[in-house]
Amino acid sequence: MKTALLGYGVVGSGVHTLTKAQPEHGVTIARMLVRRDIEAIRAIATRDFNEIVSDPSIETVVEVMGGEEPALSYVKAALRAKKNVVTANKLMLSLHYAELISLARENGAHLAFSAAVGGGIPWLTNLLRVARVDSVESLGGIMNGTTNFILTAMQQGGADFAETLAEAQRLGYAEADPTADIDGLDVRAKLALSCDAAFSQMADAAAVPALGIRHITAADVALFRQLGLTCRLIGKAERTEAGVAAYVEPTLFAADAPEAGVNGTGNVISFRCTGLGAQSFFGLGAGQSPTASAVMQDLIDTSAGTTAFDLARCNGAFIPDASSARHAYYLRTAAALPVGLAVRPLGKTPAGNACITKPLPVSALHALVQDCLAVGGSAFAAGLA
Ligand SMILES: NC(=O)c1ccc[n+]([C@@H]2O[C@H](COP(=O)([O-])OP(=O)(O)OC[C@H]3O[C@@H](n4cnc5c(N)ncnc54)[C@H](OP(=O)(O)O)[C@@H]3O)[C@@H](O)[C@H]2O)c1
Question: Is 190 known to be catalytic?
Fold first, then answer.
């Protein structure tokens, strides 16, 4: 299968290496879109996407450039040209899922994206398979290695957030602009894609409320340790009477919970189904080899015409709702809280008073944190699992 690669970065170079090392799969990288001269691939490189999209011998395009544009325009043009697309780009997919799967359907092309959630963990493919025969009741877990690295290091070392983020950047675990990771937006995109797969409907990613870890302090983490709890950033979706509740927020786990034992850049993602019960997938959610291996799996399946991404099943759209899910929270803020909200005071920290709240709808708590940030300058909340 003659294939073109868009982007020769961490994932792209990994995919190129894998296709060369495993010629038995019959996937050949024939063209490569780059934006600078790279000697190792000069013979097949181009800076002009038109050379790829207008080449009838190219059957499949692998998009591993990242970002929304021009990746989106290139992917749409490739699908219109009836080329299959394999991508790892969760941001682009989560924002334009409906349009992209419609285009793929109309043009009889495959659109596969195993690597977009969980890196090398075979999460989406298994979720899609189970959703064919069972009803998914809930799904979620640790879907972002950068924030898990930061939270683990703060728990184990006692350092503050800024210092730990700088260390993660120095080690290459966090990007120069960490916004998407630390504000929960990366998890939100992955959660929306997981909802698409599990509930066979397209979730509006922008409607999923996301609280990140930007405002966590060493004093918060010291209190969690005293309580015997471990903080992790979680994406969660669950069926409720009102539809599907989906949200991203820091969550506190007891020491014996699987999430509490997942340290560093590890991921653990689980689903619970009516018939099958619960299954969890644990492993490396990012990195060159795991991600390239997931892209390679999609290429092999695309070549055989058998990807798990059965686009015909996904019909209709839904707006995830976060008002029908509710639980108690750890809340620390310098702002005054509504009377009766705190059921267990935890004392003063340098950045405000901490407490455990009564059970609250997720949407209400997220709105309260935004209000506290607006008036008090700092606030951090984490749900009690
Ligand atoms: N890295 C991971 O572990 C991982 C895991 C799961 C999913 N992903 C997803 O995979 C995608 C790629 O990630 P990555 O880590 O490989 O990123 P990366 O290392 O930054 O590589 C992106 C590559 O695309 C190239 N590029 C960007 N815009 C381009 C354009 N307009 N024309 C031509 N080339 C262009 C960049 O060129 P320059 O080198 O010239 O900048 C770079 O080589 C992203 O969507 C990411 O979210 C990554």
Answer: yes
